[in-house]
Each structure stands twice: as C-alpha cells, then as structure tokens.
Amino acid sequence: MKQQGNILLLSCYELGHQPFHLASLSAILRQAGYAPVAVDTAVESLTDEAIKRARFIAISVPMHTALRLGEQLARRIRAVNPQAFICLYGLYALLNAEHLLQGTIDAAIGGEYETPLLNLIQAQEQGSTLEIPGVYSREASSGPWIARTPFIIPERQQLPPLTSYARLQWGDEIRLAGYTETTRGCKHTCTHCPLTPVYNGRFFAVPVPIVLNDIRAQVEQGAQHITFGDPDFWNGPTHAMRILRSMHREFPELTFDATIKIEHLLKHQHLLPEMRELGCAFVVSAVESLNDLVLQRLKKGHTAEDVATICDIMDQVGVALRPSLLPFSPWETLESYLALLQFFEDRGYIEHLDPVHLSIRLLIPPGSAILDAPDRNEWLGKLDAADYTYRWQHPDPRMDLLQKQVAHLVEEGEQCKADPVETFFQVKALALAMQDQPFSVADAVQHYQKREVLPHLTESWFC
C-alpha cells in the first residue's frame, strides 16, 4: 500500500474551496509512510489509469451535494477497478452508511475521520477483519469516531492551485481565497444540522500553530483572503481571536470571512469592531428563518428580533452580514416566507443574499434530530435512502409548489448570471402569485435604491 498511487484520495465538492479534507488526510497518511495521490474531481480529471493503480480509494463527502457526486464516482471506480477497496468519509457518509454499503462501497467513516481511516488502511494491509472503531462496514456498524485528531499541518502540495477555486470579490477587486479550519464539530445541537447526530455537541480546537502554518502555506500559494470554514468560528472565541491577531500581525493585508451564529454575534458583539480591524470582509450566519416557531423547532438559539438587532450592529460596525437561509420547512408559512422577503427588501439587504438561499428545502438524513419533532406525524414521510433524506410534505401544498418554482428560477438565474436583485423580486412575484396578488418585477427593480457589490465569494453557498 505504500507505493505511489496505491492509495487514492478523492474530493467531489467542497463549496468551491481547495479541499481541506484531502489536505488533512493526506498529511496524516504521509506522516505514516504512505504516498497517497490526491485528486479534486471538481476541477481536475480522474483517469482510469489512476483508478486501476489504486488498491484503496477514499472519497470525501462532507455534505449532501458531495455525497451525491461521491456515490456516482464510486460506481465508476467499481466498474473500472472491481478489486479496489472504496471508503467514503465525512458527515454524510456515516449518516447514510446503511444505504451506501448496499451498493458499491466497502466502508464509511464519520466524525474525526483521519485516525479511523489510517487504522483501516493498516488493517487492509495486514488482511485483518477485526472491527475498527469509527469504521462502518458490512461486517461492523461502529458509530462515529469522536476523539481528538492528532492534528498536523495539512498537505496541500498535490492539490490544484488556488487559481482553480472561488475568489473573494470586493467591489471591483478580486482576491485569491484560501480555506482552513480552526475547530472541528460544534457545541450546539441544532436539530436540522448533520453535525448534531455525529458530534452530539462536542467540538475540538485545532492548535494555533497548525492553523497559522496552514495559512502561511496558502499565502505562499498566493492567497490574499482566508475563509475559516468552521461550523461556528466562535465556538471558542478566545481561540479564534488569538489566531486572527497572530495572522494579522504577520499578514496585515490578508482579509478573511467566517461563519458565526446569530447567538454568538450577540453574546460577543464587543469583538466585532476588532474583527473589522483585523480584516473581516464578511460574516456568514445561519439566520434560516424569521418565523420564531421555525427557529424554535430548529433549536437555533435566536429569535427574529435577534436577527434584526444583529443586522443593526453589523451595519454600525461596518462588517457585511451574509445570511444563510432555510426558508422551506414544515413550519414555515406562505405569510412568513413573504415576511422574510420583505424584511431583506426593507433593510436594503437584497445584495447580502445569494439567491439560492431563497430556495433551500429542509433535508432530513437518517439519524437527524428532526426525526424527534413532536408534530412529525403531520408531515413526515418515508426514508428515500437513494436520495439520502426522509420525504416530507408541507401541510400547505402551496409551499411545496413554491419551493419547486423558486428552485427552478434561481438555478436558471445562476446559469445565466442574472442580476440577483431581479431574481429576488421574481421570487417575490412567485410567492405573491400564490396569494393571487399582482406584482411588477420591473417596477420593483427600478425603485430598489441600494445597489452595491458587497464582499462575497464567487462560488454561491450550497450544501
């Protein structure tokens, strides 16, 4: 297994970033004496020759879209190299392991994947069939491995250059963007989040020197901006700020973005002015909805009023807030969806949104905490294992129809690079049509005053 190419590490999609989950695993394996080959199939070709040479193939599937692509890739690999051992690793691999193991893969790993995957490779070398903690296979159904990873600096030399990935756009300026993580897991247990059934409220801090060395390596590759991809950058605010201060001292021109809960932005708002001074271009926050019943069901830890407060604070501080949304769930109503749109229109926040967020529908993977919702019998259907989600129907049929229409509209808009403001008002027109209310998109676009290019990544956020 230690010859070059015996181990093949594959990524399918990591939100337009250079794949951290390949870089981290590659470093661990190289430290153990292996010579893995890493291929990011999102931006480079995977040859049949590379597949045939491999004895062990690990495919990173940290999210739903990546899993869909990863399973397709596994089928191709099985056809080209029937003898290869195929392992999917990441949150969605473990949640959907039972289905995946009925098809083309041999093992699935979730949680802190590096140690179990290394142990699995070593077991394959030795021909061992013993159960390996953290590895879900046909022979054993181990749960996630939630223990501190022996973190080392990610290995990025084999990965495509940063020029192959999403960039930061800020006004007329375009900057190369890197990506790293300062923590793993999350101390919160939002019911719709795939982290909840895997990490169950646990998180681990990556040592400061490891993070800073990873940033240095990307700056050497030309990075002018860093995305901190933690599920929540302020799970450990002291840790996060220590990293930012060190980064800014060494690279004062380097900008960054991070994902932070509304709850944490409120609690630690005193840190926001310093965040701006340290180079924060924008903050992503999972607003999800402005319907307080929805927020309660999702256990988000904030209210609609909190969102309005944070919008005011972020405007005063001068850091752009980019909300992520989950506007189609069993508890959203047509009225609250329209109120959500009106909120962003009234605040002049349309440019803060990626239009795709107006279409996101709740996914309920196996093991999801949503399955414990008290009213689930009113809307929950059967598991569609092939689509990695439980089916559900909204109590108001208009909402399911609207979601399909909005999804189609924003997808078309993305493909033709449509004006996001115009797309927003087209979505509003669709929603108002469900109430038989007329609406002129052209008039709304003409009268919308605030038009500016806020800092954002050139890859829209998808899950």
UniProtKB/TrEMBL annotation:
<dbReference type="InterPro" id="IPR051198">
    <property type="entry name" value="BchE-like"/>
</dbReference>
<protein>
    <submittedName>
        <fullName>Radical SAM superfamily enzyme YgiQ (UPF0313 family)</fullName>
    </submittedName>
</protein>
<dbReference type="GO" id="GO:0046872">
    <property type="term" value="F:metal ion binding"/>
</dbReference>
<keyword id="KW-0949">S-adenosyl-L-methionine</keyword>
<dbReference type="GO" id="GO:0005829">
    <property type="term" value="C:cytosol"/>
</dbReference>
<dbReference type="InterPro" id="IPR006638">
    <property type="entry name" value="Elp3/MiaA/NifB-like_rSAM"/>
</dbReference>
<keyword id="KW-0479">Metal-binding</keyword>
<dbReference type="InterPro" id="IPR023404">
    <property type="entry name" value="rSAM_horseshoe"/>
</dbReference>
<keyword id="KW-0411">Iron-sulfur</keyword>
<dbReference type="InterPro" id="IPR054699">
    <property type="entry name" value="rSAM_CUAEP"/>
</dbReference>
<keyword id="KW-0408">Iron</keyword>
<dbReference type="InterPro" id="IPR007197">
    <property type="entry name" value="rSAM"/>
</dbReference>
<dbReference type="GO" id="GO:0003824">
    <property type="term" value="F:catalytic activity"/>
</dbReference>
<dbReference type="GO" id="GO:0051536">
    <property type="term" value="F:iron-sulfur cluster binding"/>
</dbReference>
<dbReference type="InterPro" id="IPR058240">
    <property type="entry name" value="rSAM_sf"/>
</dbReference>
<dbReference type="Pfam" id="PF04055">
    <property type="entry name" value="Radical_SAM"/>
</dbReference>
<feature type="domain" description="Radical SAM core">
    <location>
        <begin position="172"/>
        <end position="405"/>
    </location>
</feature>
